[in-house]
Task: structure prediction
Amino acid sequence: MSKSVTIKIGADTKDFIDGIKKADKQIGTTKKTADSLAKSLQLEYSDAKFTQAQKKYQSALQKTEEQAEAVRAKMAELEKAGKVDTADYEKLEECLAKTESRATDLREALKKVNQTKLDQATKETESLSVELESVGKKMKAASVVSAGLIASMGAVAKKSATLGAEIDDMSQRFGVSAETIQEWEYVAVQCGVGSDVFTKSLVKMRSAMTDLSTGAVSNASKALQSLGISPNQFRTQEEMFDGIVDALSRVQDKTLQTA
Result:
């Protein structure tokens, strides 16, 4: 880590400006690193790179603002000495203008990096919402026409010890009756939804509701809030899953579906 450059207010103008130039190089190096990280974020996002870029920009901005304050203090020193109409004062005015301009650029760069984080969170929310909405809508649509076939499907399923064990496991895992699991799985199969996708969707819905109930802020809980679902809305796990699927199936506005 590079050492900070101290700008001496009481030094003569030449020494002061030399100190400013050294500080400029240090800030420039920090900004260059931040710019590289920011560019990399555009290609492939990661929380680690985001944090590094944010810290680098914040550091460069803080040092730039401190530098601007030092220049203003030096100018005030010359003003007090009656040296406003001098070459040294003009040099300080030019230095202040450049420093303030750089601070503006750094604020804008920091704003863009922070927006990258928000954009990533939005993408994750959209992905989750679209996935849940797609599975939910298919299940809802199929359930309307498949009610008469579910009982026979359940009877066949019970003949298989392996399948029965899996259903019992899911029943205990999600706090839903075995019969309901059978119904959901049948509807999912009719919709072309694989078993793994079906199970993952249940896990995501339960996790999202847990976050919502505990007040934890996550992309999943935000997705449920956008559907108008509240933490204490359901009495049982079965009602919760059915309620989420029903809410997703009733979303018509594509923009709202991915909000």
Q: What stands out?
A: Residues 87-158 form the longest helix (72 residues).
